[in-house]
Amino acid sequence: MTTTRERGLAAENLALDHLQRHRLKLLVRNWSCRLGELDLVMLDGDTVVFVEVRSRRHSAWGGAIESVDARKRQRLVAAAESFLQNETRWARQPCRFDVVAISPTATAQPLRLEWIKNAFDS
């Protein structure tokens, strides 16, 4: 049996692999400050991408995407602002927030990965 932390790490690894196959470059992983944590900070061309990785073993309490609520968004934005203040070389670059949601499927495929670019613009 795996722990929650191990499942989270596996989800982050899956998301990172997917994003790197789409030519994003990893800047930092699990960056944290007193305001929150950023799972992955990537570079897509010249755009800094703050990636929230969410996974669910089942959808009884809602799916992975639905778990990024307004409160979580506020924490991610605050952590990203802190990151840009601390990592000034990225402060003038365009940035966006993406979500990678990993969920079980009803088919033979074990997991479904959904990458939502500009997830907070909707």
Order of helices and strands: HEEEHEE
Report the count of strand segments: 5
List low-pLDDT spans.
Answer: none
Count of discrete structural domains: 1
Strand order of the largest sheet: 1-2-3-4-5
CATH class: Alpha Beta
Q: What is the CA-CA span between the terminal residues?
A: 37 Å
**Broad shape:** globular
Measured on Cα atoms, how large is the radius of gyration? 14 Å
How many helices does DSSP assign?
A: 2
Question: Per CATH, what is the topology?
Answer: Trna Endonuclease, Chain: A, domain 1
Q: Based on the structure, what is the oligomeric state of the protein chains?
A: single chain
Protein name: UPF0102 protein IQ22_00168
InterPro entries: Restrct_endonuc-II-like, tRNA_endonuc-like_dom_sf, UPF0102_YraN-like
GO molecular function: endonuclease activity; nucleic acid binding
Family: Belongs to the UPF0102 family.
